[in-house]
Design goal:
Layout lengths: L3 H20 L7 H12 L7 H6 L4 H28 L6 H10 L1 H33 L10 H18 L3 H29 L2 H6 L15 H18 L5 H4 L7 H24 L7 H5 L5 H10 L1 H35 L17 H18 L6 H30 L7 H24 L2 H13 L1 H11 L11 H23 L7
Helix pairs in contact: 1-5, 2-8, 2-12, 2-15, 4-10, 4-12, 4-17, 4-18, 5-6, 5-17, 6-7, 6-15, 6-16, 6-17, 7-15, 7-16, 8-15, 14-15, 15-16, 17-18, 17-19, 19-21
Length: about 500
C-alpha cells in the first residue's frame, strides 16, 4: 500500500529475521499441540452460551442456513491459511508475514498491531465472561462481569496467565492440550445427553419459527433472511481463532502440521457448534431457549438432568475461558516480536527470555489488557458484547489482507503451485475469501468501524519510533514516502473522527 515501493529492498531482512529466529534454541510443537491450539482458540466460553445466542435470532431452519453460509465462507478463509502455509512454508510469522510480503511494511505494521490489539480486547472479554460465570456461584459479587470486584479478580488472572505464558510456547502447548481435553468433556457430554432426549417432532414443529401464540410458521424468505443476517453476528465471532496454528507456525515441528491442524481444528469445531446450537431445539422451542439466561447450556442440562449438569457446565466455562486465555496470550505476544525483528516495531520488542518467550511483547500485552480491564468497568450496557464486537471488527481486515495476498500469489507466482489446477483452486479460494471478508467488514456496522479507526490511529507512534530507529538522523518528513504520509494522515483523521463518534455514541460512561 503506502510503502510497497520500499518493500523490495526490505524483503531479505524478513528472511534473515526468520532465520535468526530459527537459529535460536526454542521449543517446537507437533500436530497434537497445534490442533489443540486451534480448537482451544476457537472454542472459548462462547460455546456454552451458544444455544440461547442463536435461538434469540433464528429458528432451526434459519440457524441451518446461517451455519451453511458461515461454514462455507469461513472455510475459504481457513483454506487461505492452509494454502499459504503449504506454498510459503518459509514464512513462519503467520498473518503478519503474509501482509508485509504482499503489501509492504506499512500494511504489515497495521496487521501486526491490529491483530495484537484486537486480541487484547478478546482477553478482556474472557475476563468478563469468567467473572459473570463466577457470579452464579457467588451472586452479587461479580455483577455483569465488569464491576470493581470483577476488575480486580480479572487482573489477578491476567498476571497469572502472563507468568505461565512466559514459560514459552511448548510449555503453553502442553498445558493447553490438557485444558482442551478438560473443557471439551462438558461439551461432548452435552451433545450426547441432548441427542438421547432429542425429539424429532419438537424440532420439526418449530423448524421455521413459532408465532407469539406458539403456532408453527411456514417458510418466508424475508423473515428467514432476517434471521440469518442476525445470527451471522454470533457465528462470525465464534470462528475467530481459526488461524491459531498459523500464528505460531514458526514454532511448528513440521510446516505440514500447521496445515493439517488448521483444517482438522476448523471442521471439528464447526460440527460441534452446529450440534450445540441445534440439538436443544429438539427438546425446547426456539422461543423457550431464547428466554434462557446464560450460560444457557448450564440451564438446559439442569432442567433435563439435574443440578450435576449445571455444575459440570459452569466448571467447563471456567476451564474453557482460562485455557483459551492462555492460548491467546501466547499467540498475540508473538506478533510484536516478529514485527520488531523486521524493523516495523521498536527494537525493544525483540527481547526474549530463556524459554524463548517474547518477554517485552508479553509485558506490553499484559499492561494493555490491564488498562482495558479498567476501561471495561466504564462500559455502558453489555460489556461482553462490546469487547467481542471490537475484537471481531479489528480481526476482519487481517483476514481480508491474507485472502487478497493469496489472490496475488495465485496470479503472479505460478511456479509455487504443483499444478495449474492447484493454482486455479488457490485463486478461487483467494477471491471468494476476499469477498466474504469484505462482507464481514460491512456487517460490523459503523459504530465499531469508527472505534477501530481510533484504535489503529493510537498505535501509529510505534511505527514512527521503529522508522526512526532504522533510519537515525533522517528528518521526520523523510521517514515515509509522500504516499505513506497521505495514508498515515488519513488514518489519523479517521481516528479522531472515530474517537469523537465513540465518545458521543455512549459506549463508555461513568459507572
Amino acid at each position: 500500500m503506502a510503502d510497497s515501493g520500499q518493500h523490495a529492498s526490505n524483503a531479505p531482512a524478513m528472511v534473515e529475521g526468520s532465520g535468526a529466529a530459527a537459529a535460536e534454541p526454542r521449543s517446537t510443537v507437533g500436530f497434537v499441540g497445534l490442533f489443540a491450539l486451534v480448537v482451544s482458540a476457537m472454542v472459548g466460553g462462547g460455546i456454552f452460551s451458544l444455544p440461547q445466542n442463536m435461538a434469540q435470532h433464528a429458528s432451526a431452519g434459519g440457524q441451518i442456513v446461517a451455519w451453511a453460509i458461515t461454514g462455507v465462507g469461513m472455510w475459504f478463509i481457513v483454506n487461505t491459511f492452509r494454502v499459504l502455509t503449504n506454498t510459503k512454508p518459509h514464512m513462519q510469522d503467520g498473518l503478519y508475514a503474509y501482509a508485509r510480503t504482499g503489501f509492504g511494511d506499512f500494511v504489515g505494521f497495521l496487521v501486526a498491531y491490529g491483530y495484537w490489539l484486537c486480541n487484547c480486547f478478546s482477553l478482556v472479554a474472557y475476563g468478563v465472561l469468567i467473572m459473570s460465570t463466577l457470579d452464579i456461584f457467588m451472586p452479587g459479587t461479580f455483577t455483569n462481569g465488569n464491576n470493581i470486584a470483577s476488575t480486580v479478580a480479572s487482573s489477578l488472572i491476567l498476571w497469572l496467565m502472563f507468568i505461565v505464558a512466559s514459560l514459552g510456547t511448548k510449555t503453553g502447548a502442553i498445558i493447553n492440550v490438557a485444558g482442551t481435553i478438560c473443557k471439551m468433556i462438558p461439551v461432548f457430554v452435552f451433545v450426547v445427553a441432548l441427542a438421547a432426549v432429542f425429539k424429532t417432532g419438537v424440532f420439526v414443529r418449530g423448524f421455521w419459527g413459532l408465532s407469539a401464540q406458539g403456532t408453527p410458521l411456514g417458510f418466508d424468505v424475508h423473515r428467514i433472511g432476517a434471521q440469518v443476517s442476525d445470527s451471522m453476528l454470533v457465528t462470525l465471532w465464534l470462528f475467530i481463532g481459526m488461524e491459531g496454528a498459523v500464528v505460531v507456525s514458526g514454532s511448528a515441528r513440521h510446516p505440514r502440521d500447521v496445515s493439517r491442524a488448521t483444517t482438522a481444528g476448523y471442521l471439528t469445531v464447526l460440527v460441534l457448534y452446529i450440534l450445540v446450537s441445534l440439538l436443544p431445539l429438539g427438546v425446547y422451542s426456539s422461543n423457550q431457549v431464547a428466554q434462557m439466561p446464560n450460560p444457557s447450556m448450564s440451564v438446559i442440562m439442569e432442567q433435563c438432568f439435574g443440578q450435576w449438569g449445571s455444575i459440570m457446565v459452569n466448571a467447563g466455562v471456567i476451564i474453557s475461558v482460562v485455557f483459551a486465555w492462555l492460548v491467546w496470550m501466547i499467540m498475540i505476544s508473538q506478533m510484536p516480536l516478529y514485527a520488531a525483528r523486521d524493523g516495523i516495531y521498536p527494537r525493544s520488542f525483540c527481547a526474549t527470555n530463556r524459554f524463548g518467550a517474547p518477554s517485552i511483547g508479553l509485558v506490553w500485552t499484559a499492561i494493555t489488557c490491564q488498562l482495558l480491564f479498567v476501561l471495561c468497568h466504564f462500559v455502558n450496557g453489555d460489556a461482553w458484547e462490546v469487547m467481542i464486537s471490537i475484537t471481531s471488527v479489528m480481526a476482519m481486515p487481517c483476514y481480508l489482507l491474507c485472502c487478497v495476498y493469496l489472490w496475488k500469489v495465485a496470479v503472479r507466482e505460478r511456479t509455487v503451485f504443483r499444478s495449474a489446477a492447484a493454482r486455479h483452486r488457490a485463486l478461487a479460494t483467494g477471491i471468494l475469501g476476499t469477498l466474504f471478508s469484505l462482507f464481514l467488514v460491512y456487517s460490523a456496522g459503523l459504530r465499531y468501524l469508527m472505534m477501530a479507526c481510533a484504535l489503529y490511529a493510537i498505535g501509529l507512534p510505534l511505527l514512527v519510533v521503529a522508522r526512526r530507529q532504522r533510519r537515525p538522523g533522517v528528518p521526520l518528513r523523510q521517514l515515509f514516502s509522500h504516499r505513506g504520509w497521505i495514508v498515515l494522515s488519513l488514518i489519523v483523521v479517521l481516528g479522531v473522527c472515530g474517537l469523537v463518534y465513540t465518545v458521543h455514541g455512549g459506549v463508555f460512561g461513568v459507572a
